């Protein structure tokens, strides 16, 4: 989950101790452990895939029973659950192996973004201070880049031009601006495209910060929203060495490129170049 030694130790010890007191988190820990065995071992593939699905089903049932009762006693395990859920959703190849079209893959990707956003936002809106002071506070400590994000590729910064050139309402512009700002923040934080990552640390930080309006635009498959999502696909592509990410970014970019139409193709030239040349 991370390449930071202290945080690695925390995932191995502290997180497991917390999970022992919260069944929904324990089930997700075991589910993603089984899924990892699917990814790294060829023997008993079907057995571990089935166990992973069963355990995640139990985890989601348990989570659904408490999601409307978030407080200081469960905000920590919910945050941990959200991090593992993001990795699980992208890492579970059984969710995509039978998809037959770019449209189906896009539906899968948008659903993943929505689930990651909804779960984590339950705790980050009200319990950030509690989380930072908790036993897993170190997991939330990271560099916090500030505008104007000088090290971010110019193609990313030019996304604001796309928004300004479109005939959009105020609420849509604000939602897009927020999504683009958080995207630039993550490009800077992750040092993409200068660095390729082999753990998923920080990659799920973008979905959780998206506004309701942006998710609505994305669910309606608005071209501007899809193009912004494609640039997030570039970030995923530079996390491709993480076992739970793999080719998710490249598949997402290709799906969007196939669906948005020629009018928008200029905005997808750079993402397509990134997956072709790296």
Summarize the structure.
This protein is an all-alpha fold. The protein is built from 14 helices and no strands.
Key features?
mainly alpha; single chain; 14 helices; 278 residues
What's the helix-strand series?
Answer: HHHHHHHHHHHHHH
The profile of the biggest β sheet is: none
> What radius of gyration results from the CA coordinates?
19 Å
What's the pLDDT, averaged over the residues? 93
Helical element count? 14
What's the shape? Answer: globular
What proportion of the residues is helical, as a percent range? 55-70%
Q: Regions with pLDDT < 50 over 5+ consecutive residues?
A: none
Number of strands: 0
Distance between the termini: 23 Å
Structural class determined from secondary elements: mainly alpha
What percent of residues are in strands?
under 5%
Provide a descriptive summary of the structure in words.
- This protein has 278 residues and is mostly helical.
- Helices cover 62% and strands 0% of the residues.
- The protein starts with a helix and ends with a helix.
What secondary-structure arrangement, pairings included, does this model have?
Elements: H1 5-12, H2 14-19, H3 23-40, H4 45-64, H5 75-91, H6 102-124, H7 128-132, H8 154-157, H9 159-165, H10 170-190, H11 212-219, H12 223-237, H13 248-259, H14 269-277
Helix pairs in contact: 3-4, 3-5, 5-6, 6-13, 9-10, 10-11, 10-12, 11-12, 12-13
């Amino acid at each position: 989950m991370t390449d930071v030694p202290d945080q690695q130790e925390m995932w191995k010890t502290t997180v497991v101790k917390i999970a022992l007191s919260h069944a929904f988190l324990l089930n997700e820990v075991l589910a993603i452990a089984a899924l990892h065995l699917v990814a790294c071992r060829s023997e008993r593939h079907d057995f571990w895939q089935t166990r992973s699905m069963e355990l995640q089903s139990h985890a989601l049932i348990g989570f659904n029973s408490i999601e409307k009762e978030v407080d200081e006693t469960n905000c920590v395990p919910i945050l941990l659950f959200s991090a593992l859920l993001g990795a699980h959703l992208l890492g579970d190849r059984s969710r995509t192996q039978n998809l037959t079209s770019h449209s189906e893959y896009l539906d899968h990707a948008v659903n993943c973004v929505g689930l990651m956003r909804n779960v984590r936002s339950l705790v980050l809106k009200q319990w950030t201070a509690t989380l930072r002071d908790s036993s897993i506070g170190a997991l939330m400590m990271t560099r916090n880049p500030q505008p104007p994000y000088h090290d971010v590729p110019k193609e990313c910064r030019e996304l604001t031009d796309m928004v300004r050139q479109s005939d959009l309402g105020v609420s849509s512009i604000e939602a897009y601006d927020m999504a683009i700002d958080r995207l630039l923040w993550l490009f800077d934080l992750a040092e993409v495209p200068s660095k390729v990552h082999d753990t998923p640390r920080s990659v799920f930080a973008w979905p959780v910060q998206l506004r309701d309006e942006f998710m609505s635009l994305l669910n309606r498959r608005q071209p501007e929203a899809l193009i912004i999502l494609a640039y997030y696909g570039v970030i995923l592509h530079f996390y491709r060495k993480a076992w739970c990410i793999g080719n998710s970014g490249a598949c997402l970019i290709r799906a969007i490129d196939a669906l948005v139409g020629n009018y928008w193709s200029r905005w997808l030239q750079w993402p397509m170049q990134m997956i072709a040349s790296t």
